[in-house]
Amino acid sequence: MNRRSLAPITKSLASKSKLIQKGDEANCEFLVGPDGRTKVKIFALKLDLCAASEIFRNMLKSPLTPPSGPIEIKTEPKIFTCLMQFIHTGAILENLDGKLDDIIELGQTSDMYMSWYMVDPLTKLMAEMLQSHVNTNNVVKVLNQVCRIKALASACDKTIRVACVNSKLISAMSLGSLEYFVKVDEINVSDEFELVDAFNKLERTIRKKVFTTVLPHIQVLLLNAEQLRQLSAHLTEEEMNVLAKRLVFNVEPKELPRRICPIKIPRRSTQSPLTGYTLDLNGEKNFHL
């Protein structure tokens, strides 16, 4: 069994997990499975659940929860079993290696049900497992699913930093992924305007929504006058006036408008100074002279 844990699993903890799974000594039960699927009964200890999560604590004390009989949970049984194992033992006893969708779903489920002090250690374990499965072919798909969970999203950092930044890459990302992506300080662009240009090439129907999301994280103070002009459709009059005065009269404003990113340090480029070697979403080589 390939176990993932915060600390070595003692015989007593392993025994505890087996006893609970069989229903021995358990004092709480769930009926687990998505709608329209056969439900599986999963046992647990109330004390461990209440210690791990306010959500479980409120669920167990809610007047809407049946006083006897199982509580229904609309989650994949294997995923919920892993969650219960971690709550009871601090370990994932199921073998999830090689099962990308299961790793992602367990991370999402833990974020949904557990308190931060339990979520952080578990998502850290999930990120370690996830990192070995992320590549240039699936990185955007994975990031779209985990971008709201920072610990899991960080598993995509190494790969997303070398992806060739273009409208194809940008259009494949969800708004949450884009917001995560533009906060990264090291990506495959020669300058900040390369990002702006990629966003500008998106279809008009989604361009406005995208710029609303990413503008606070674009380092507009690094753009020149012509580059700002191409961004002007997405800036307010106040924002343009402040940026124009800064460029023309070299006047640094006392306070920047709320949406203007104050960072003036160029992102570190991942392009090679010799070849500009990158990888695109399909894993093909691209060379930029």
Q: Which structural class is indicated by helix and strand composition? A: mainly alpha
Overall pLDDT level: 84
Give the class-level CATH name of the domain at 1-95. Answer: Alpha Beta
CATH homologous superfamily of the domain at 1-95 - what is it? Potassium Channel Kv1.1, Chain A
Which percent bin holds the helix content? 40-55%
Ends: how far apart?
50 Å
Shape: elongated
Count up the helices.
Answer: 15
Order of helices and strands: EHEEHHEHEHHHHHHHEHHHHEEE
Could you please say which CATH topology of the domain at 1-95 applies here? Potassium Channel Kv1.1, Chain A
Low-confidence stretches: 272-289
Kindly provide the radius of gyration, computed on alpha-carbon positions and rounded to a whole number of angstroms.
24 Å
Total strands: the figure is 9
Largest sheet: 3 strands, mixed
Brief synopsis:
The protein is mostly helical and 289 residues long. It contains 15 helices and 9 strands.
Structure, described:
This protein is mainly alpha-helical and 289 residues long. The protein has a domain at 1-95: Potassium Channel Kv1.1, Chain A, CATH 3.30.710.10. It contains 15 helices and nine strands. The chain has helices spanning 11-22, 46-52, 54-61, 77-89, 100-113, 116-131, 139-146, 150-153, 157-160, 167-172, 175-181, 192-200, 204-214, 225-231, 237-249, and strands at residues 4-5, 28-32, 40-44, 71-73, 91-92, 186-187, 268-269, 278-279, 285-286. The protein has a three-stranded mixed sheet. Strands 1-5 form a two-stranded antiparallel sheet. A hairpin with a 7-residue loop joins strand 2 and strand 3. Helix 4 (77-89) packs across helix 5 (100-113) and helix 11 (175-181) packs across helix 13. The protein is elongated, with a radius of gyration of 24 Å. The chain starts with a strand and ends with a strand. Residues 272-289 have low confidence and may be disordered.
